[in-house]
Amino acid sequence: MGELTYRVERLAREASRTMDVAREGLAADLAVDGLHAWGRLYDSVASGLDFEMVWPDGEKRERVPMAQRRALLRHADRRVREAAFAGGNEAWKSVRDVLASALNAISGTRLTLYQHRGVGHFLDVALDDGAISAASLEAMFAAIEGEAELPRSFLRRKASLLGRESIAWYDLEGPLLRDGGPPMVCGEIEAASPSWETAVEMVRGAFGAAYPALQSFFDRAIERRWVDHTPRPGKQPGAWCTSSPVIQQSRVFMTYAASMSDVSTLAHEIGHGFHAHTMRHVRPLLRGYPMTLAESASTFAELILNESLLRDERLGDGQRAALLGAALGDASIFLLDITTRFRFERALYERRASGELSADELDALMVQTQREVFGDALDPEGVDPLFWASKLHFFITSVSFYNFPYAFGYLLSRGMRAMHAREGEAFLPRYERFLQRSGSDWAHRVAKQTLGVDLEQPDFWRDAIRSLAGPLEQLEALIAPAA
């Protein structure tokens, strides 16, 4: 069978976890008004939810749709973040019993189906979906637990700039502040408002210095107008990349609003396109790669851009602090927030096997998990007990454990970028072989065969996390004089 062995193995594995035709047909029919109906109920409740926002000036104004809450939780004014957090949670509290019923039904249905399909452990299906082994997942989380003080130390430093010893949950995505003054993150550098032409040159320069083949692909995408970047009325928000194996081309959809985050988005989406470009000659059956590897090339490209910007001697201290703070903030989300989501969902399934959990029990489980993962970096009174209700990912019925693939892909990309920095151009052919084979085998086998690293041991993951120590030291040097 040769290169198709992996696909045949997967088909055999799936077949071994399948009921007879009649029962599978019944399960599919019942899922329409059962499992998936609970997911639709969540979508309906969440989309219609709004809350009363008490602004810092004391005014209540109009009610705020829940869809706008996350933008407020990123606001530079901590009072705005706190008000959005409190108002939003009052709204979630009003529907938490309904959502607890939905979550119990979704997890309970899965556990019942797993039992009838002969699934050994509730994580097995999610691991297969991500094409990773249990040993790889255990190794990654062992490394995160062992190195948790690194992201925690950043969060404690962030808290000190806020005049506090620890952060609240609503500070996680807020910008760095200095002595209660103007935001450091997105301060000077956002004010520059780079034009589209400047953004293109920034990305081209970064790619050209570190990865000429990536620059060549980027130039082709720009010259052939594969990137739809222009704002226009009615254009849908968001950004993504789609690729066609038939014409062997990619298209990027984004709305460029002249911010540095948009420049990063451009690099990120081009990375996705480059991933497809490396697989253009791969057999169709082996092109589909899992979510755990889907962000490999995109995050890799984004890291190249950010590191290039930090080396720019024209960058001011505020701009450099902005980039470093944003990068370390993202790291704290991937390492601590994602770990919280994973541990909560794992504990949910373990306890759900013995019966339903009440809304109070779900609140308590979420608080306990947040405190365990974040440690003293999180204010004991600043937890978010209703995070289980507000996080859509727990209610997606098509997949379970929509959390650990984010951390997996993030650390994998950081680890590969660190190897690239050490080895230079000699690393790139191996990196491209990794991308080419990303749909051809289990992730740990692909990494071993192409990169020579063992994802089933903590060492690779530990080194990837420790690569954040340099950026943290740089940030400390920039903000220490004003502390």
Explain this structure.
The protein is mostly helical and 483 residues long. It has one domain (132-483): Neurolysin, domain 3 (Orthogonal Bundle), CATH 1.10.1370. The chain has 23 helices and five strands. It has helices at residues 5-16, 21-33, 35-47, 69-72, 78-94, 96-117, 124-130, 134-146, 149-161, 188-191, 196-210, 212-223, 260-278, 291-294, 296-311, 317-352, 359-374, 387-390, 404-423, 428-436, 443-450, 458-466, 469-479, and strands spanning 50-51, 64-65, 227-228, 240-244, 249-253. A three-stranded mixed beta sheet has the order 3-5-4, with helices on one face. It has a two-stranded antiparallel ribbon with strand order 1-2. Strand 4 (240-244) and strand 5 (249-253) form a beta hairpin. Helix 9 crosses helix 16, helix 13 crosses helix 15 and helix 16 crosses helix 17. The longest helix has 36 residues, at 317-352. The protein is globular and about 60 Å long.
Number of helices: 23
Largest sheet: 3 strands, mixed
Cα shape: globular
| Radius of gyration computed on alpha carbons | 23 Å
In the CATH scheme, what's the topology name?
Answer: Neurolysin, domain 3
Number of beta-strand segments? 5
The end-to-end span amounts to 63 Å
